Structure formats: structure tokens, C-alpha cells
Amino acid sequence: MTDISAADHAVPLARAPHISEASVGDYVALLKPRVMSLVVFTALVGLMVAPTHVHPMIGFTALLCIAVGAGAAGALNMWYDADIDAVMTRTASRPIPRGRIAPGEALGFGMTLAVFAVAVLGLLVSWLAAVLLAFTIFFYVAIYTMWLKRWTPQNIVIGGAAGAFPPMIGWAAATGGLAIEPCLLFLIIFLWTPPHFWALSLVRTDEYARARVPMLPVVAGPEETRRQILLYSIVLMPVGAAPWLLGYAGMLYGVTALAAGATMVALSWRLRIARASANKPAMQLFAFSILYLFVLFAVLLVESGLGRLLGRAVT
Amino acid sequence: MDEKRENTDIVLTEQQQRSRRARSIAIALALGALVILFYIVTLVKGPGVLNRPL
């Protein structure tokens, strides 16, 4: 009798659905707002440096869709990487490992936002931009998160392309096509990603090893990582200045890009010759790399804004 | 019958009800914003909004 009664209770308990207590803030955290802000900024630059006039409302719509698309990719990344996030200090407080949001909810949320962002961008702005956004989300989730991240130490080198597409999407949203200029912006972010991420992963090597993520310092060791950081920084310097060298940007940009590029190389060199256990040079390079990208793109934005103002003054 | 329903009915805690209400409001606001966005962009594009060469 007692057994039957226990079984009767076991059925509803086993079938009890998960009832979410997730707040709106938990869902916002799924969108990786900090990554999203960098994506929106670089997309804005792509949109603004394009040689066409974009109605502010169309520009706003494009940026909104790119932001939501980036957020969707972030949510899908957190859905797939919940096991890794749970064992890393930096990511253990994310909504899924904390149990605030169920993995299935994150998957549904991410997929819905991705479809909406791509569809709205296509319907209201440009289908080329929408295709690029869809490819970016696919690349980040399927190619980087599901495949490369757990498979090769070159994960963030190839996967960095996903973070480099936003200026191209912004340009495509403004012009309906593509050109060399947005490809240069793509290349700058693409080459900037390895030194940026590897500097951070040097400090977090133990955590990546514990999570079994084959980041370069885990697989090849800190010495090789520092060497590759320096090589990428050296290549990044002329590529960063390329928009000026090729005549797409002004002198202000050229001087800024060369000075910031030289600083990146100097910090990378300091990291290369530092004691193996020293975290400070790696964190300094990581912090400066964020400033590097922000300053370069901000100067492009300022130059483009000034150019438009002067153009208007002349006509 | 009533006994059966009693077993399967779910009573939400106050926290769960609050969270659900906040999420519902956020979804409603997002959908409302989407409607307004489509309306304004249609006005901005004018008759060109229908011009979609295949």
C-alpha cells in the first residue's frame, strides 16, 4: 500500500514542468550586452563611413537588427556552452549555469530573436545585410561555438571572423552592396581578435584547461602564445593604417592608427619578454587592445562626420 | 476527478508570478515597439516600400 502511494506521488513530481523564475534582466544577460555594444559600435562605423546618405530611421533599424542578431548569437552561444560556462569563474554566474534560465528556453529565445532580426533587417533595410547577419550568427554559433572552440587552438583566429562582420553589415545596410573599405574594417577586427583574446586567455589558462577548451596557451604553452601575439600585433599595425594608406581615411586616422599600432606592438613585446608567471603585461595588453579598436573606429567616425559637415558647408 | 486535477494543477509562487508578469510586459513592449517600427519605416519609405524588384 505504501509503495503504491509513493508511486502515485512520483508520477506528477517527475512530470512537474520547469517553472521559470527568470527575470527580464536574466534574459538581457543572455544577449551579452558588452559584446553587443562593441558590435553595434563597429556596425555604426560601417554604416556611417559608407558614401551614401542613410535616413536616420533606416540606420537606427539596421543597428537595432544587428544588435538583436548579435544578442541572439550570444544567447545561442550560452545555450551550447553552458557546460563550459559552469566550470569557469568568469562565466559561472551566467543565467544558465546559475539555473535561472533552462537551456531550452535560451535556445528558443536565441532562435526567435535571430529569425526576427534577420527578417526585419531584410524587409526594412537590405537583403544583402540580412544575409550577412544570418551568416554571422551561423558562423558564430555553428562554426565557432559548436565546432572550432572545442576542437582547435586556432578557434578564435577563425572564429574571430564572426566579430569582424558587423562593419560589413553596416556598410551593406547603407549601400546595398560591398566594397574594399568595409573589407579593410573586417580585416582589422579579424587580425585584432587573436592578440586581444590570447592576452586574456594567458591569464585564464587554468580555467580553460579545466573546461577542456583547447585555447592556444593550453595546447602550445604561454611562450608560443606570446610569440604569436607579437606576430599578430606586428601584422595588425600596417593593416590598421591601411584605410589611410589606401586613401579611404584622413591623416588624423593614419597618425592615430600608426601610434596605436606601435603601442600594441610595444605592449606585445613587453609581454613576450616578461616573466612567464606575470599576469600584469597580459592584462595591460588586453585592456589596451579594447582601447585600440575603439579609438581607431571612433576616429573613422569623427572623420566621416567632419567630412559630411564640410561637404554640406561647401555645397 | 477533482482529486486528479488537484494532483496536476500547478500553483505558482509569488516570485514566479512576479517574474512571469515582468516577462509578459517585456514581450508586449517589444511587440509594440516592432509595430511602431514597421509603421514609421513604412512612412519613411513612402510608396517605395512596395517597390521590391524580384
Characteristics:
heterodimer; A: 315 residues; mainly alpha; Tetracycline Repressor, domain 2; 79% helix; B: 54 residues
Question: Can you walk me through this structure?
Answer:
The complex is a heterodimer of chains A (315) and B (54). Chain A has helices spanning 2-15, 24-30, 33-49, 56-80, 82-87, 103-124, 127-148, 155-164, 166-175, 180-203, 205-210, 216-219, 222-245, 251-273, 280-314. Chain A is built from 15 helices and no strands. In chain A, helix 6 (103-124) packs antiparallel against helix 7 and helix 10 packs antiparallel against helix 13. Chain B is mainly alpha-helical and 54 residues long. The longest helix of chain B has 32 residues, at 14-45. Chain B is rod-shaped. The mean pLDDT of chain B is 82. Classes of the chains: A mainly alpha (315), B mainly alpha (54).
Outline of the structure:
By secondary structure, chain A is mostly helical.
In the CATH hierarchy, the third-tier topology of the largest domain in chain A is known as Tetracycline Repressor, domain 2
Determine the structural class of chain B based on helices, strands and strand pairing. Answer: mainly alpha
Order of helices and strands of chain B: HH
- Helix coverage percent of residues of chain B? over 70%
Mean pLDDT of chain A: 91
Estimated share of beta-strand residues of chain A: under 5%
Q: Spans of chain B with pLDDT under 50 lasting ≥5 residues? A: none
- Oligomer class: heterodimer
Q: Unreliable stretches of chain A, pLDDT < 50, 5 or more residues?
A: 1-11
Q: Please give the most extensive interface between any two protein chains, plus how many residues each contributes.
A: A-B, 19 and 19 residues
Shape of chain A: flat
Q: Mind describing the biggest β-sheet of chain A?
A: none
How would a textbook summarize the main sheet of chain B? none
| Strand and helix order of chain A | HHHHHHHHHHHHHHH
Radius of gyration of chain B: 22 Å
